[in-house]
Amino acid sequence: MATCIRSAAWILPLLTILASQCTPNRKDKPRQYYYIRGRVFLWSFARIHESRAPGLGKDLESSIELWYKIQSHISIKLRWITRSEQPSFCINKKADIILRQAIRVSETQSVAKYFWSQLHLLETIKERILQIRADPARGPSAMDDEGFAGALDVDVIKDKVQKILTEFYIVEPSADFKLTQIGSIVERVKNRTATDVTDRLWSVLKYCCGYDDLKEVLTYIFKTASRSNLANIPSNSNHLAELIKSIAQRRLAIPILTGSEPLELLLEIGLEKLLKDFQIIFHESKICHLDLANVGKAPTAGAGGPNDSSTNSRASSMRKSMYEAVPVGTSTLLSGVGTDDGGAVRNSYFNAGEANLKIGKLTQVQLLLEHLLSIEAHLKLTSIYPQVAEEYFARPVISFEEVLARKTDQLEIPILNNKVIELVENSTPYIRRVAMTTRSKFRTVQSTFYQSTEPILPTTQFAQLKTGEGGEVKNAYWCLEYTKVANN
User: Fold this and answer.
1) Rounded to whole angstroms, how far apart are CA atoms 485 and 72?
2) What backbone torsions phi and psi does residue 484 show, to the nearest 5 degrees?
3) Lowest mean pLDDT among 170-184, 270-284, 398-412
4) What does pTM read for this prediction?
5) CA angle 461–467–469, rounded 5-degree value
6) DSSP 45-99
7) Which residue positions does the secretion signal occupy (predicted)?
């Protein structure tokens, strides 16, 4: 037994292997115990703890944690504290619940994969803008256009643009779908017919094969606006919309785009279109009101939490029709729409810091959407969506490149819905952690028993811990036991 002076604590680690064919007993080596997996009892831990805390009485406090795997990438932790003299591994229905989930970044096969491609395209456009601005003498046309979504001939794109601007169109009603399923809503939004002119232009302009084609098509748009009675007037508040309206109203001559301006116009309408798609998904799914200003912003003190009745009321009344989901007058993603200090209409606007931040926030929205789709598919707990969104959006925003470098995205949050316990009631946990504490007036002794089907120590340093391809041992636990003794 370790002792301590002036509240100093000593940790006594002990690695033991829990084999599958043995009963609880001591072997030749001291403090080495063996248990049958699935037949580990807390009374055996209590006896060990009592032997390490002699004379401290029977006031035992046990903190019990059980980890269960729902899927290979989803696990649930149940935690509770008991003061019973005979604690048990039987699940406490009032246990605290932690959801842990990992998704592979940008390699998902979910229905939201389309939005990953849009994020990649927007990041590519942003990088091309930075290249042009960094070396203006080289000229935009000399830049490598590899990476664009180009697949259409410029004449085909011009024909589509002409129809968008000059022909009236009717939005056909979409096929019915299950409003309660996020996956169905994502599919509908992905295939929806956009109503605003610049949203429809984005769906065409992104297929330009390079800088020269894009500049040519944008000039064609301006010429069409100058000599035709437009059937469809842009309603968005971005620079391309303002230019089209000003030219159509004879308030502006046809602008000559230079440098990175064509790409800046394309980036702005692409960011706006993607945000609008996400907003519709979140509104229709009754997840939350999606405001990019709140993404990456920690909740302020005193704000209503996930249990706040006003928060739940707002969430329950969030559903709107597909085309009324996004508020009118939504501000542009890139600031500075309108006129410059001299009153002249600016062709475009770009700020590298703002662009990085907006793409990073949209990436965070996409990651949350992937997590929610996984929860919907495997847990079916629709009531926790607003809580998961609030917790996830409180994370700091990181850049698109940093997200890709991480390979996987981890979600670990507490959930309040105890229905998930029904999924694991008859399962064997893959991790157990029991901390037993006994206190006296002068001393506190805590014994911790940690068991895992996965190796606890690095297998590169401890070859005896190596397992099969799955990383787990079957019918056995790896176990780490240690005791902490401290003066009060």
Assistant:
1) 37
2) -115, 125
3) 170-184
4) 0.79
5) 115
6) HHHHHHHHSTTS-S-EEEEEEEEEEEETTEEEEEEEEE--SS---SPPTT-EEEE
7) 1-19
